[in-house]
Amino acid sequence: MILTDIVLARRLERAEAQSNVDFVEARARTFPESGATWVDVAGAYAMFDGVSSPLTQTFGLGLFDVITDVELERLESFFQERRAPVCHEVSPLADPSLLPLLNSRQYQPIEFTSVMCREIGPDVGASGPSNARLRVRTIEEDEHDLWAETAARGWSESPELSDFMLTLSQISAQRKHTVAFMAELSGRPIATGAMSLTDRVALLAGASTIPEGRKQGAQLGLLDARLKYAADRGCDLAMMCAAPGSASQRNAERQGFQIAYTRIKWRKAA
Predict the structure, then answer these.
(1) What pLDDT band is residue 159 in, cutting at 50, 70 and 90?
(2) What domain range is 108 assigned to?
(3) Which among 210, 193, 211 has a CA at the least distance from the CA of 202?
(4) What is the domain count for the chain?
(5) pLDDT at 129 over 90
(6) pLDDT digits (tens, 9 = 90+) for 200-214
(7) How far is CA 265 from each of CA 86, 87, 127, 259, rounded to the nearest angstrom?
């Protein structure tokens, strides 16, 4: 059993923050006109990835240093100068002085996220895919577009998200410290998964399966392959994030992940 404390919270929050920083930097390289950028204020990583991007917020606020009005004003200016909403995703292990400070500055809670983790070791993911026709592998350098298109097709049932997910996946496949995985059924790409490695923590994300490729064991195969890849490279911890009570959370719990804590996203009132 993993015991939740501030040391664990710092590892998990920094792993996700670094993964998102890598994404923001990849967007800045791919789309310089986007203005994508980030700053470090008292250990909190604040990133701008576009006004409507879910990555436009801070991670780690109050976990690495005590936050005062001075630091909050710097962070608020960072977002307001870019006409973006001011949002902070806050761990319950952040310094207790943070909550009254957020309340006094007219922040409101708007979202919960379950932060989950599990230990990994040399024997993890050793069984391989249960479907004999399924092959899981890391993608080649010339397959970023194929990976992104496959990931976006997993959202084809939601047309309003499909184009957004295509752009998101194209950038995600090219960020630093990230490994992209593909699942193929009889040689045909049907599912994707990604993983970022930071300080021996493997952050799992990018799970997507095309509608006609579901219920073939692809995501389980992708999970096993990523955990084994991470363990082989010295990682001792894997993490995932999901909406509380969601199918993603339940699936993760079935695979040995436990909830470390539930974060709250706070947004400053306009």
Answers:
(1) low
(2) 6-114+262-268
(3) 193
(4) 2
(5) no
(6) 999 999 888 999 988
(7) 10, 7, 38, 17
